[in-house]
Write a structure and sequence with these properties.
single chain, alpha+beta, 16 helices
């Protein structure tokens, strides 16, 4: 600061300043101070000469005033924090695939996810939808709703959840919407029921095969399934074992495609109809029913109904029938609970059965979320479906929720034990040898850095002939220094140090390229052990060599080198076998 005073007091420095520079510094800031009145200006005149009389002090005072005003600037810009505005989250879009007879928006009116997020309902039929699915962009649905020939709604949106209340496939012309189900599944959209199960329900024999699994699991007493025969086409349909029979053609609903055949002649006529339809067919023994039974499950709500035909038609779902609700028994609950576990789980399903006049029950079919609602509690059932959908949406779409896979989780296989590092492969000089693994256990490959004690073809059996002796391991006495002489085994001979107790592995020596009797430098010790059978050694070495190469499928680069070494040893083994 003293330097500034000395510098500004210099007359030459002040003379070089532009005209009016000092007066501008002395002028008060209009934004921070109120303008002075003319009387105050006349009372305190400040001529230009006076400003030059003390330039340093005036400039210093201007700097001081600027520094005093600087801390006040941030305080004036900062405003006191007000009340935080809540973040409005976008509504979740629910696509309901159903006909126009039911307005599903009223059943979701006022319902919110976790009491915060609104649910917007979009309803259309399969025939009014089109879509495009992406890997990362989800699924974009185009909806064009036409009522009485007039286009009512035409817009595009990305649904967050699906409720399927319509059949995705039927034998009727133009009612195959399986490609739309594939597209919705491609976009990864959760649904009730799951899109995986909806696609599987597009073939009734496919669903019946799941009933057969339940039948074999629970038995005919707990799960009485009707006897059915499947024909992929008309060619194997020669005759039926018993008459009358019921023939079902293809995938049809509401009593369509079902024919009752009384005799063999009518059966042959129906076979020609199946040939024209170019579809599969099933045959069932006709059951003279007293009434039909239907057990439905919506979430955790169960209902059972009994339907008796009044018109006398053998199909109780056509013509006039009397419907009444019956008590829910444990037997019925077992049926529907067992069927609700198929295809990864069914949130909405129903089981249809026939009660014959002889007092026996026969399960004939299971339905998914597209089942028609019957009885006096239709409105209650629709409200139960809406509550179930809201619960599933909260589970899947809220933070922390995940969409489970419709399939059972894959159980990871136990990874094979890692091969030891180079320092642990094989015996090292001056180190004790670890205990060999039991017979049939995983074998460890040798590292190329460690001195090899023998090829796999020279693996031996213990004196009792019960456990193979691993060629990669041995006792400390069998480890040779690089300068010590190695003992080679001739055909039918053995090394001196191979006499060991059962269960221990011996280090075999390399096989000489030319067969012949080798001169042992330790002849006294070689007389202590009996030579093993040569043919047994060869067959055992091949088995162990192949098992060693099979168990070492994946590993580190050092293991790859060990596998290459194993292959070379195998070649030597085969060469030595055929040379004998």
């Amino acid at each position: 600061m003293n330097f500034l005073r000395r510098r500004l007091s210099d007359s030459s420095f002040v003379a070089n300043l532009p005209n009016g520079y000092m007066t501008d510094l002395q002028r008060p800031d209009s934004s921070t101070s109120s303008p002075a009145s003319p009387a105050m200006e006349r009372r305190h005149p400040q001529p230009l000469a006076a400003s030059f009389s003390s330039p340093g002090s005036s400039l210093f005072s201007s700097f001081s005033s600027a520094m005093k005003q600087t801390p006040q600037a941030p305080s004036g810009l900062m405003e006191p924090p007000g009340p935080s505005t809540p973040v409005v989250q976008r509504p979740r879009i629910l696509l309901v695939i159903d006909d126009a007879h039911t307005d599903w928006s009223k059943y979701f009116h006022g319902k919110r996810l976790n009491g915060e997020i609104e649910i917007r309902v979009e309803q259309a039929e399969f025939s009014e939808l089109n879509l495009a699915a992406y890997v990362t962009g989800g699924c974009m649905v185009d909806m064009q709703v036409v009522r009485n020939g007039t286009k009512v709604v035409s817009r595009s949106f990305k649904p967050d959840f699906i409720l399927v209340r319509q059949h995705a496939y039927s034998m009727a012309l133009g009612e195959d919407y399986r490609s739309l189900v594939i597209g919705l599944q491609y976009g990864g959209l959760p649904a009730v029921n799951s899109l995986y199960s909806v696609y599987n329900f597009c073939s009734k024999p496919w669903v019946f095969s799941q009933l057969i699994k339940i039948f074999h699991s629970l038995g005919p007493e707990k799960f009485p399934l009707v006897e059915q025969t499947f024909f992929p086409n008309h060619k194997p349909m020669l005759t039926a074992p018993h008459f009358p029979v019921v023939i079902k053609l293809g995938h049809a609903h509401a009593g369509m495609g079902k024919i009752k055949v009384e005799n063999q002649h009518d059966y042959q006529d129906i076979t020609s109809v199946v040939a024209m339809a170019k579809t599969y067919a099933t045959t069932e023994a006709f059951i003279d029913s007293k009434y039909d039974i239907r057990i439905q499950k919506i979430g955790s709500n169960y209902k059972a109904y009994m339907r008796t035909s009044i018109s006398g038609n053998w199909k109780a779902n056509t013509g006039s029938a009397m419907l009444e609700q019956v008590a829910m028994t444990e037997r019925y609950r077992l049926w529907v609970d067992s069927c609700s576990e198929m295809f990864g789980g069914l949130d909405i399903c129903a089981v249809k059965a026939v009660h014959s006049k002889d007092g026996r029950d026969y399960i004939i079919e299971v339905m998914d979320s597209s089942m028609p609602l019957i009885g006096e509690h239709v409105e209650e059932d629709k409200q139960l479906m809406a509550d179930l959908v809201v619960s599933k949406m909260s589970q899947f779409l809220m933070p922390g929720g995940t969409v489970p896979s419709p399939l059972k989780p894959w159980a990871p296989q136990t990874k094979p034990a890692k091969s030891p590092g180079p320092g642990q492969l094989g015996p090292q000089l001056g180190q004790p040898q670890p205990r060999p693994p039991p017979q049939g256990g995983p074998r460890q490959a040798q590292s190329p850095q460690t001195p090899r004690s023998g090829s796999p073809s020279q693996q031996r059996l213990s004196p009792q002939g019960q456990q193979p002796l691993s060629p990669q391991s041995g006792s400390p006495q069998q480890q040779r220094s690089p300068g010590s002489p190695q003992l080679s085994r001739a055909s039918g001979g053995s090394s001196p140090n191979q006499a060991s107790k059962p269960g221990t592995s011996l280090a075999s020596q390399p096989r000489p390229p030319v067969q012949g009797r080798s001169t042992s430098q330790q002849g006294d010790e070689s007389k202590k052990t009996a030579p093993p059978h040569p043919h047994l050694n060869k067959s055992q070495s091949l088995t162990n060599s192949l098992s060693t190469s099979d168990t070492s499928q994946r590993g580190t680069p050092s293991e790859d080198e060990a596998k290459a070494e194993t292959i070379r040893n195998l070649r030597k083994s085969f060469a030595s076998l055929f040379s004998d």
